[in-house]
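Appendix B. Raw example, untouched.
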Amino acid sequence: MEEFPPVTDPWPRRLAERGHTGARRIGAGVEGVVYALGGGRVAKVWTGRPPTGLALSRQVYADIAAHPLPFATPEIFEAAEYEGVVVTYERELPGASVHGDSAHEEFDRELPAHHRDVLLTTLRGLATVPATEAMRALTVQGDDRPLWQGHRRFPSALAALVSRAVARNRDALAVLVPGLDAGVERTLDALRSLPDVPDTAIHGDLVPPNIHVDGSGRPVAVLDFGFYTTGGDPAFEAAVTAAVWDMYGPHAAAHAAHLTRLFADELGYAPTALSVYQAAYALTTYDLFGMGVDDGHFRWCAEQLLRNDVFGGRQP
């Protein structure tokens, strides 16, 4: 059998060549791989290119960081391009992930109380950051235009995104979701009927690795903006967070239902709004990583729709 040399990471060497000796990989997310440089800085080596350009991403980071929050958020200090690869030099964020990703680390049957406290603090904090034009100019991953383009209301912009996303690969989703077209129409009608609320910053991907806590369990940083970051109804953030906090564990459905009720009670969001936003999230992300029963996210989105009461299913 032919032997191949082990694959090594070239970026610590490349960063050292640019004066950043001792760079070490500390994490990876949707946007790219992150290396600690020391001195309170990290380098992010982007996977592909920022969909809306570095200048816009940098402005969104600055808009959020300028607002007083009980936790740190990313800031881009400078950017460069090496052989076609974008590298940004950013603020190093403190703390450690509150929990591993549910695809790799199971949650207990009952969510820890400090998880609920961390989530409420994070959601309340982000909901104080007013939406800016830079946030509204962002493009959601998988789409071909800024979410808000041609719209003045977040629910209307989201409804248009649902229509575009479903059209991408409708037949594949329909295999797992009987009555897809009728459910989509119910979701669109429900979105369009939602009332106007003050728009705030939306992270859009508050999974456990993206919230860092200190030794006492207090949230000290929120990272990895970009996947679904925009400006809009803070209830959307709460709805998506409830759904994605534990996506793949054996108690995922019960945890999502529990968090949805908690956020409705503690944050004052209408349960119907949370349900319709959860359906919209599934309909707009179902095909981003793969299609068919072999793809975990695709299956997860289908399952969300099948039990979503606004889409046409039943909540657990």
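End of appendix B.
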